[in-house]
Amino acid sequence: MSRLEGKVAIVTGGANGMGQATVRLFIEHGAKVVIGDVQEEAGQALADKLGDNAVFARQDVSSESDWQQVVAKAQELGPLNVLVNNAAIVMMKSIVDTTPEDYLRVVNINQLGTFMGIRSVIEPMKAAGVGSIINVSSIDGLHSSAGLAAYSSSKWAVRGLTKSAAIELGQYGIRVNSVHPGGIYTSMGGADFSSAEDLNKSMYADFPIPRVGQPEEVAYVSLFLASDEASYSTGSEFVADGGWFAGMRRPGMPCS
């Protein structure tokens, strides 16, 4: 079933990880997709592999001119219907070790980049008469951990921005929701230094679903939100975290 037939989407950070999984799934379901990413070689290779329905555009999400170029490329494919604000970086440092420059680097990509994405697609989506903006936040946008001051605060900001945008844009047929992944097996989630099996044993053994998540499992949440199936969902948080936010199974407790 082609759940996104006739839709045109932009996916930022689309060259790898959750972004790449989202691009692949969207195209599988009939969308045309602009892949925005600073990783030119990986992004272009992905577009070449996926065929005519995928276009790569080099994009720094904190650059207004880059956003203008990406939106223009999308509109060449048809009316722009979907934006997935996925591009992000993580930095693990204590507050005392985080410099203002460190903090603003994370904010510029994770928070400002999301704001600029929303702002850039409003008029094209109003012209199209319908739109879905999907902001990828994090489980750390619902709670936090030590060492994640910059990352977590940026992801909380994405959550608040999502609600504000949903209130403003619903009258134009534009829905805005946030997605909150937990631990996902990507380079950001540990794939560069550990196997999934090792991560499952060391980090996820006590989770309700006792394993690390896969990028495709988050991509399917975005697929739902991009489709017309989610036509009455806006301003909401959609969590894909293996039950992390619900709580842990504790050794020695019943049913553990």
UniProtKB/TrEMBL annotation:
PANTHER family: 3-OXOACYL-(ACYL-CARRIER-PROTEIN) REDUCTASE (AFU_ORTHOLOGUE AFUA_6G11210) (PTHR43180), NAD(P)-BINDING ROSSMANN-FOLD SUPERFAMILY PROTEIN (PTHR43180:SF28). The keyword Calcium does not apply. GO terms for molecular function: glucose 1-dehydrogenase [NAD(P)+] activity. Pfam families: adh_short_C2 (PF13561). Keywords: Lipid metabolism, NAD, Oxidoreductase, Steroid metabolism. Belongs to the short-chain dehydrogenases/reductases (SDR) family. InterPro entries: NAD(P)-bd_dom_sf, Sc_DH/Rdtase_CS, SDR_fam. Its EC number is 1.1.1.47. It is an enzyme of class 1 (oxidoreductase). Gene3D superfamilies: NAD(P)-binding Rossmann-like Domain. This is Glucose 1-dehydrogenase. The lineage of its organism: Bacteria, Pseudomonadati, Pseudomonadota, Gammaproteobacteria, Cellvibrionales. SUPFAM superfamilies: NAD(P)-binding Rossmann-fold domains (SSF51735).
